[in-house]
Specification:
Layout (H helix, E strand, L loop, with lengths): L9 H13 L2 E2 H7 L6 H13 L3 E6 L2 E6 L3 H6 L1
Antiparallel strand pairs: 1-3, 2-3
Helix pairs in contact: 2-3
């Protein structure tokens, strides 16, 4: 398990930006809203890392996980 307050990588920040804008999104929505082209599995892996870092939480709806940020932009900037 990773440390709770660990720094975010540039890609993690990009994903968090999408979630801060959308509020809650599944992997496909995050993938479509990123500025760069990434594989679905890469986005899924990054969201799971953010979950481990306790930056997002996820909810299972039907058969898809929806992720939402549990830290604000200002909290991330401070750390």
């Amino acid at each position: 398990m990773k440390e709770k307050n660990s720094q975010l990588t540039p890609l993690e920040l990009e994903i968090m930006d999408v979630l801060w804008e959308t509020g809650e999104a599944n992997v496909q929505t995050v993938k479509q809203n990123l500025k760069r082209e990434l594989a679905y599995t890469t986005v899924q892996t990054m969201l799971n890392i953010l979950l481990e870092k306790e930056k997002v939480e996820r909810t299972l709806v039907d058969r898809a996980y929806f992720y939402k940020p549990i830290v604000s932009r200002s909290q991330v900037v401070k750390s």
